[in-house]
Design goal:
By secondary structure, the chain is of the alpha+beta class. It is 15% helix and 31% strand.
Length: 163
């Protein structure tokens, strides 16, 4: 077991250190994503803990994170970065080659269908596909190529920001 460096949160409620005491980090990330069922487990979020944080004492929030919602068969991923001026930018993650010329058509539901967001087909991931994105983020704090980002307008009152 290594010293935890990241915090994970389930359903915007339960949060704690992401640990590797049961399985290595990539497998733990995959395990979490595989459990998404859209009902009792519908959302998962991951962020790096501040340097030197004692995660047994405190589980701090971060303005930068990666999150997903939906089911292991169909989920959406968002990532949030803060620029050097302190301005937050949130993006939907997509696979390369998507067509943004039309309106989004794929609806992702979570929390027993109470919430949903509509994304483009190339922005729908399975748990297998999402594990690659999350593992890279775990290592680098970034969503790497070939994945693409579509910025969300967080100023809109009804924007598709995940709950």
């Amino acid at each position: 077991m290594t010293k935890p460096t990241h915090i994970n949160e389930m359903n915007n409620f339960v949060r704690g250190a992401l640990t590797d005491d049961l399985r290595p980090y990539p497998e733990e990330i995959r395990f979490s994503l595989d459990r998404l069922n859209g009902s009792s487990f519908w959302g998962w979020c991951l962020w790096r803990a501040p340097e030197g944080a004692d995660l047994l004492e405190d589980v701090p929030f971060s303005d930068e994170f990666i999150q997903c919602a939906g089911t292991a068969e169909a989920l959406t991923i968002e990532v949030r970065y803060v620029d050097p001026d302190g301005q937050a930018h949130q993006y939907v993650v997509g696979s390369p080659g998507g067509d943004l010329c039309t309106d989004p058509t794929e609806v992702i539901f979570w929390e027993d269908g109470i919430f949903s967001t509509t994304v483009y087909p190339h922005e729908v991931f399975t748990a297998d596909e999402a594990a690659v994105v999350f593992c890279t983020y775990f290592l680098t704090d970034k969503v790497a190529q070939p994945y693409v980002l579509r910025e969300l307008d967080l100023s809109l009152p009804d924007s598709d920001v995940e709950a």
